[in-house]
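Quick one from the shared queue. A colleague (R.T.) flagged Copper-containing nitrite reductase as missing a structural entry in our internal table.

Convert sequence to structure tokens.
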Amino acid sequence: MSPQISSPDPQNRPRTGPLEPPAARGRWLIRDLPVIVWLVFLLVVIAAHPGLPVARWLMIHLLVLGAVSHSILVWSKHFAEALLHTPSTEADRKSQSRRLILLNGGTLIVIIGMIASVWTLVLVGAAAVAGAVIWHGLSLWAQARTALASRFASTLHYYLAAAAMLPIGVVLGVILAFGVGDPWHLRLVAAHALINLLGWIGLTVVGTLVTLWPTMLRTKIVPGAEVAARRALPILSIGLAVTLAAALLSQPWAAGIGLIAYLGGIALIGRPFVLAALAKPPREYPTFSAAAAMVWLVICLFATTWVFFTSETWTEATQGFTWLVPALAAGFAAQILFGALSYLLPVVLGGGPNAVRAATMEFARFGTLRITIINVGLAICLLPVPSWVRVLCSGLVALGLAAFLPLVFRGIRASRRAKKNPPEPVTGDRRAQVRALKEERAAEQKQVSRNNLALAAAGLSAVLLAVAGGVAIDPASTAAINETTASAGAAATGETTHVRVEAKDMRFTPATVDVPTGDRLIIDLKNLDDEDVHDLVLATGQDSGRLAPGESTSLDVGIVGEDIDGWCSIAGHRQMGMVFGINVTGGSSPAGADSSRSNSSDAMPGMDHGGDAGGDSTPRNGTDDTGSAAADVDFLADPGADFSARDSELRPASGGVTHKETFTVSEVERTVAADIRQKLWLFNKTMPGPTLRGDVGDVFVITLVNDGSVGHSIDFHAGELAPDKPMRTIPPGESLTYTFKATHSGIWMYHCATMPMSSHIANGMFGAVIIDPPDLPAVDKEFVLVQSELYLGPQGGVVDSQKVRREEPDAVVFNGVANQYDHDPLTARAGERVRFWILNVGPNRSSAFHIIGGQFDTVYKEGTYLIRPDNPEKGASQVLDLETAQGGFVELEFAEEGHYPFVSHKMVDAERGAHGIVDITG
């Protein structure tokens, strides 16, 4: 017997009727195709998300606004027709097609507008989406007015309430896209997500499952289900209203009250849901998937309620809720969508019981394996696990969900094959055949149960392998705790001290904790920063691992018997005050133990934390107290025949008035001097970053993608705009779009503006934007040289922030490498006119650019000409002097062949590497 939707008759018996109205049977491209298209786009974005703008937003909205919303319009209309006994007409079908075109077209325009950062497109697309849903709601309302009374008409009320929610969410989304500052931005994010996920999707799903869930289980609807549904809707609606109002006008705890009411409504309507499952437990993929989706909904509701009640500000609340949104999207929305479609599509394909059965078997293929991978993998992703574990497990979750797509095509093929080969007509003893069929089905069920157990074990094994692989890739993130290091011989008391520590605004709160001697110490660490990544490293070797904004973890310090220092190991964070102390109380140190604080520089050699105490603080080329890589560096050493310096020749602007670029932040090990390599933070893997060029009035649209391991940002001095939004720090994996208009000429610095800014700049995060002065004369050659300083950390390590703080550079360089243009000179010809654009990015030292043997007849500094060739005094300049973040250009003609050194005439810096040669030929 084919699966059919159940709707009770007056005698309280399930009435079976066709799911699809006659006018909608068969293939219908606008109904069937968009979901597949949105899901394909989603998979493409998941695969390519590191290089895409607004990638996280894009993934969530392709699923929720694209695939799920389209399905809601399709299936809520068809369920309403089945429950109200109002078959669809051809006119209804045409009207539905127009609504679907409007919805999907509007969604596409919204997505294009967000990617291109064109708010007008977002507004137009959002209006189309809201219009389609309002039209849909009005259609359902008109349908209800003309229908006869139905026992399950309350399902329609859920659809109408949901249709009222989405336009509110759309308005909030448009405001967010326009750009508002905090605290309104945070409030709107929470309200927008909650009203869409719990209102638009949640109400639709809950209302539908009243009848669909027992139908999928092939059991009767539990008595009283319709009453529970009718009573639950007002509670759910009031809970959502309170949550929305609190998000916009009150504190997080008030929104938590609204969520408690929503949970009460779920509990009321969930009772018949659970009773139906107990009467006939799920056995196939569609029911497993739907059940798992509802479990995720309840888990996320409880977690969000807890987050709201324990958060003092909307910053904390939004961070906690944002952490749960992927679980709501993948665990709830995606699984309910795939589970329902796996049950419904075989019915839509039709063709009789055998065709439906054949298609259903394909949709359910490897069902238990997929369910296990998706749900166990997703659960692990939400735990405080190492980043590589999260990457591999999230990849498995994506594969588990993506398996739905090929199975759709297999199901269609199986249905067509069954239609072409109908079963032989029944002959002979019918009772015997029925008995044989029942025995065959029972044997099949036993085999299915055995297969399910095997597939569940295989899925669990795959997830465990992903966890093991993630740990193997980054074993340092799960370093074992060595109790004896912290205990210093202290006798264990058997007691455990729990402390909660928060990382925010370059501080640990509290900064110190007291622990009785011999107690085991467990630190519950949470990163409450909006933007920055933090960690906690102890001098005894324990490491929390890096925590993105909103993430938390527990650090087991073990038995504590001595005072212990701690700090954040992100470059520069310790120097800005992110230090932590564990103080032992209630006893003296054991005999022979040093009761003074552990010297963190000795305990963790080579880390970014050089100490002020002891050691020679004089700048030198040698190993200092931080384990620097600068020992015995010969900056003039020959790097070898294969060495090639960075191309410094400047090309003309690309043309056009709009310049679009993507800057990807990455962590790359590079040679910065003879035999010295450093792990740099770079824009597009170069130091300096890409040089941009244009004219006054040009518009630059820069998409910043953070593929690093800590938070980063970007600040363009060439633009004039409030820094609040475009210059904000974004955590790893996220992106932002920075748009500015060049209003004045000059050579302008851009750089990472994340604190400590000095360390981010010194580790390679800078570049130049050249805006040509009007009527800039043509020259034969142009070069761009960016002066910066190197503060070397350990070999292969990052910048030594302590040296930056002491202003003790190991090298001063042009374009990122010491003396590189001595080994691979710049070239020009005698008599050619040559322009040198110079930018000093520092972060600390000034520059005095000079070409030995040359004189500058043109000097342009900070937006104005100081000397021009038509100067009546016939004067010239020997130096372009630049403070940090200043720039300009000089021009000259080389009189004869030869080698002309160029330097910073602060001679100690020239000797540190700010030196090169211009090779002039005839």
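The first strand starts at residue 5 and ends at 8.
The chain has 21 helices and 29 strands.
Added to the table.
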